[in-house]
TrEMBL record:
Lineage: Bacteria, Pseudomonadati, Bacteroidota, Flavobacteriia, Flavobacteriales
Keyword field contains Cell division: no
CDD domains on file: AAA
Listed GO MF terms: ATP binding
Protein name as it appears in the record: Sigma-54-dependent Fis family transcriptional regulator
Record's keyword terms, sorted: ATP-binding, Nucleotide-binding, Phosphoprotein
PROSITE patterns: RESPONSE_REGULATORY, SIGMA54_INTERACT_2, SIGMA54_INTERACT_4
Swiss-Prot/TrEMBL GO biological process terms: phosphorelay signal transduction system; regulation of DNA-templated transcription
Top-rank taxon, per record: Bacteria
Domain Response regulatory residue range list: 3-119
């Protein structure tokens, strides 16, 4: 049932709006408020799918109500009600976050169409949020160890900012999960997350990949092409294995960070970009700097926030949760019931030397599920999980 609040100080207009909406659809639950202060109090206590709010009211006008609601419940959909002299103000409220406005006296068709469209939009927003939650489960960080709890706390503090983050740790520890969580919990989550594996791109192509190129810039450049920084505009770019990037490309990345501009290969034209940069590496960048393979000035630009992801051997207490998680995901992918692991099997897996970290554990769990008994036992682990 859609919950609608009508905030209008003119009793006759308020009654008409409530009557029209109540009679239009028996699934509308319509509340009313005689001024902005009363309306704001109701919004604080209830979650409304739609608020119709007059602009000119005593005690607290509609613009003030709109600004207050967008601070405390920004997802609330608000349609302004404007008198003839308030049209310019009504248009300006849309810049402040109002969905639309209707004029007094309200035209029946215009009112009902606006309400339907606004409620449909609200439903889409809710569906998108639910979908995003489902997507984020693919990048969920599993664990309750002190190290993982610390990382989760850091993400909560840092995600809402535009601070650059450098994620370090061995291969297979889940550095990309940290990057995804940072993006999905940020204000940029509706924008793109562009991932670049710097180690997988040949050094002669990395600059073209990152910054794009113009036609004729090199032999195979048969047309203009945008780079990954441009593709990430308004969102986040994740530079994985940045320690493998060439010094030439590092210099251009440094300029992009300093000036928020990039140049396509073969062009001298600047292109403005609004991008948050998250980087990751399995290398010791301080050692790379000492040996002349990584720029110190770029390191300091990237490492505003440092997040160290520990190897699995340093968080063995998370292994039971990880096994349960992987068993559930593998069963879901195969359309089968999840297999359980005996306590002795789990204990034995906790004692292994996980040089391949979480990636290796996931592979071993899948192997045990395929080859093991209905309940994976200690003997299954000895048979199929041996190094």
């Amino acid at each position: 049932m859609a919950k609608i609040l009508v905030i209008e100080d003119e009793a006759s207009i308020r009654r008409v709006l409530v009557k029209i909406l109540s009679e239009e659809n028996d699934t509308y639950q319509v509340d009313e408020a005689a001024d902005g202060l009363i309306g704001l109090e109701k919004i604080k206590k209830e979650d409304y799918d739609l608020v119709l709010c007059d602009i000119k009211m005593p005690k607290m006008d509609g613009v003030e109500v709109l600004e207050a609601v967008k601070k405390i419940k920004p997802e609330t959909t608000i349609v302004m009600i404007s008198g003839h002299g308030d049209i310019d103000t009504a248009v300006n409220t849309m810049r402040l976050g109002a969905f639309d406005y209707i004029s007094k006296p309200p035209d029946l068709n215009r009112l009902l169409n606006t309400v339907r469209i606004a409620l449909d939009r609200k439903e889409l927003v809710v569906e998108n949020k639910m979908l995003k939650k489902k997507v984020s489960k693919n990048y969920e960080m599993i664990g309750e160890s002190k190290a993982i709890s610390h990382i989760k706390d850091l993400i909560e503090k840092v995600a809402a900012t535009d601070a650059r983050v450098l994620i370090t740790g061995p291969n297979g520890t889940g550095k990309e999960l940290v990057a995804h969580w940072l993006h999905e919990k940020s204000e940029r989550s509706s924008g793109p997350l562009i991932e670049v594996n710097c180690a997988a791109i040949p050094s002669e192509l990395i600059e073209s990949e990152l910054f794009g190129h113009v036609k004729g810039a090199f032999t195979s450049a048969v047309r203009d092409r945008a780079g990954r920084f441009e593709a990430a505009n308004g969102g986040t770019i994740f530079l994985d294995e940045i320690g493998d990037m060439s010094l030439s490309a590092q210099a251009k990345v440094l300029r992009a960070l300093q000036e928020s501009k990039v140049q396509r290969v073969g062009s001298d034209k600047d292109i403005k970009v609004d991008v948050r940069v998250i980087a990751a590496t399995n290398k010791n960048l301080n050692r790379e700097i000492e040996e002349g393979r990584f720029r110190e000035d770029l390191y300091h630009r990237l490492a505003v926030i440092l997040i160290q992801v520990p190897p699995l051997n340093d968080r063995r207490e998370d292994i039971p949760l990880l096994i349960e998680h992987f068993a559930s995901k593998i069963a879901e992918q195969n359309g089968t019931a999840p297999k359980s692991f005996s306590s002795k099997a789990i204990k034995q897996l906790q004692e292994y030397d996980w040089t391949g970290n979480i990636r290796e554990l996931r592979n071993v769990v899948e192997r045990l599920i395929i080859l093991g008994e209905k309940e994976v036992s200690e003997s299954d682990v000895k048979l199929f999980a041996s190094k």
